[in-house]
């Protein structure tokens, strides 16, 4: 993405504000958009992105992808590209892993001009 509020196709969503980080086992790199989970366990991740158009695309799609190869896609119904798209994932981590939220629309996506443009929450449910 770039500072104009556009997430390029194939790019990670970059979150610029960390509100709470109660676990040293979950870290985030605000430059790359990569979240790291440091120990095995079950994690619940929920996210949303406020979008406002996607070039000629009639839908917007974002996918949470883990380094273990799991994907959790979410897409809007056509012809809806201005909305709050959300998704969630239950990640059963067998050990340390990373994950990202990626624009998989096939087009650049404009972020809505809202106070908060995107949010992601991670909760560790079970420690192995």
Count of helical segments?
0
- Radius of gyration, taken over Cα atoms and rounded to an integer in Å: 14 Å
| H/E element order | EEEEEEEEEE
Strand content: over 45%
Uncertain runs are: none
Helix content: under 10%
- Give the strand line-up of the largest sheet: 2-3-8-5-6
> pLDDT average, as an integer?
93
Largest β-sheet summary: 5 strands, antiparallel
Give the overall shape, derived from the CA principal axes: globular
Secondary structural class: mainly beta
Number of strands: 10
State the end-to-end distance. Answer: 36 Å
In words, what does this structure look like?
With 128 residues, this protein is mainly β. The chain contains no helices and 10 strands. Strand 2 (26-29) and strand 3 form a beta hairpin. The radius of gyration is 14 Å and the shape is globular. The N and C termini lie far apart (36 Å). 23% of the residues are buried.
Task: Give a quick summary of the entry.
The chain has 128 residues and is mainly β. The protein contains no helices and ten strands. A hairpin with a 4-residue loop joins strand 5 (61-66) and strand 6 (71-75).
Key traits:
128 residues; mainly beta; 3-stranded antiparallel β-sheet; 10 strands; 0% helix
Layout of helices and strands:
Elements: E1 6-7, E2 26-29, E3 34-37, E4 41-52, E5 61-66, E6 71-75, E7 82-93, E8 97-103, E9 109-110, E10 118-127
Antiparallel strand pairs: 1-9, 2-3, 3-8, 4-7, 4-10, 5-6, 5-8
